[in-house]
Amino acid sequence: MKKENKSVIILGSTGSVGRQAEDVALKENIKVEAVSACKNVGALEAQVRLFGCRACAMSDEGAARELKTRLADTSAKVYSGADGIREMILETEADSAVNSIIGEAGLDATLAVLESGKRLALANKESLVVAGEIVMNLAREKGATVYPVDSEHCAIFQCLSAGRREDVKKLILTASGGPFYGKKRDELRSVRAADALAHPTWSMGAKITVDSATLMNKGFEVIEAAHLFGVGADKIEVVVQRESIIHSMVEYIDNSIIAQMSVPDMRLCVQYALGAPGRGEAVINELDFEKLGSITFGRPDTETFVLLPLALKALSLGGAVPAVLNAANEVAVSAFLDGKIGFTDIFDIVTETVESLRARKDIHTLDGIIASDREAREAAGKLI
User: Fold this and answer.
1) 333 lies in which domain range?
2) pLDDT less than 70: residues of the chain
3) Strand order of the sheet with strand 31-37?
4) Which of 147, 198, 238, 305 has the fewest C-beta atoms under 10 angstroms from its C-beta?
């Protein structure tokens, strides 16, 4: 790990990526200055005590009050609410920040990290889906690089070092295909939450695991890649790679393809995002090619999994339409996990909401995007 990255803030620290960032910090001897979560008071308290954090924040104000009482015997400052998270980011000195907050709620934190001048290790893809143009413009204004934590974008980031940007022919995003690869829509009608949460290769949080099952996650990642790497949708290809060993690839104009491979473990992505261009000692297991045996490829079924092409359409329309897509999906996935709708209803609710609000393509301001997000949540909620 490079010496300048000696301290970090972990946002969304009690979630899947946040806990893996915690593990990397312990292994790399990185000082965790601050952490944040939504409602998990017990887990956040344990992290504050483990790392001796100077600050912590909870987006739920009631949880923040409870945490403050629990931490009364420490010197840790407790911040409350979304505004409190922003304040904590701006006031806490640290070299880097890992943003692993789930959903659109992570956007403000992304902007605050960039404004503060800290190195941004971005796991919250929704920041770029919802407001990619605004985020990347701010990064350029601050002279900052956004280091992606998503395995696919982390892979592409590394593969791009093999050549010149002007010589890139296309980016190839790999997808596991999720637990329902090869199934048709009729076979998906009876899918339960437990089925959708049984991902074949990755261990992730509930929301992103369902997004992987619907291929919405891959659609989001196409939008993310377009903003992150400054390419059009016509230069991004999605390929199914069932074993999740090749995390993504870059093809150059000479038809040479550079791939990044490893066992599926997000700790590598966190470690790279915090230390690039340097590399630290391994925090993940070595890839055993003999044990792996073979690697299989395929094409995504865009007729069954309609949210992937819908994401490409949202990217093409631009403006606030990707924000509408994300908001409708958050509402639908939450309803599915709560048992209120079926799996295929997610497809219908998101599609209908995007079609009804496609006029939001002309909105480009942050206030307008946030308003469109709220409008989409209300519209999607009426379809449940």
Assistant:
1) 318-384
2) 1-5
3) 77-80, 55-58, 31-37, 7-11, 96-99, 119-122, 146-148
4) 198
